[in-house]
Amino acid sequence: MQIYFCGSIRGGRADRALYERIIGSLRLYGRVLTEHVGSGKISERGEDAVKEGDRCIHDRDVQWLMQADVVVAEVTQPSLGVGYELGRAVAMNKKVFCLFRPASGRVLSAMIRGAENGEHFFVRDYQEEEIEKILEEYFTSSFSKTPSHSLGQPR
Predict the structure, then answer these.
(1) CA–CA distance from 27 to each of 84, 115, 121, 149 (Å)?
(2) What torsion do the CA atoms of 143, 60, 18, 13 make, to the nearest 10 degrees?
(3) Are 135 and 129 contacting, i.e. CB atoms less than 8 angstroms apart?
(4) Cα 97 to Cα 7: distance, rounded to the nearest angstrom
């Protein structure tokens, strides 16, 4: 399974460590195409090391979106890029699972919460300590797949 993970980069890196944790959990269910989102090497300035610039990042990420079987987005930290990715994912008829932490004091955009349709687009409020359980529930119910370590396969 190909998983596209969305999280804020230029919109703010306050949740970077949480993204890294989510990405680690997502690896149990498939290949995470966007592992760099959780990297401590990327600042709020983004991927400065990409010589080809923003166009290259955009085109690469859209290619990954097209390859993805599912899009998982942590949407607590507002991000124009994440919103764009989600819009593209919806247009591509991808399965989308959004994660939001109400304890942040923020209010989730109506454009995200209102997109939930119970079929391809889901929004789940959560607390950090339950993230692994929530991901397991989502992947088990949506894809009938248990984590690879549960099957005795190497991680």
Answers:
(1) 24, 26, 21, 10
(2) -150
(3) no
(4) 12
Bridge partners (DSSP) listed for residue 96: 71, 121
Is the whole model's pTM more than 0.70, yes or no? yes
Look up residue 34 and give its two tokens: 């966007």
Mean pLDDT of all residues in the chain?
90
Q: For residue 82, what are the CA distances in angstroms to 65, 93, 119, 134? A: 12, 16, 20, 20
- Cα distances from 111 to residues 79, 98, 136, in angstroms, run 13, 12, 26
What's phi and psi for 95, nearest 5 deg?
-75, 135
Residue 137: how many CB atoms within 10 A of its CB? 12
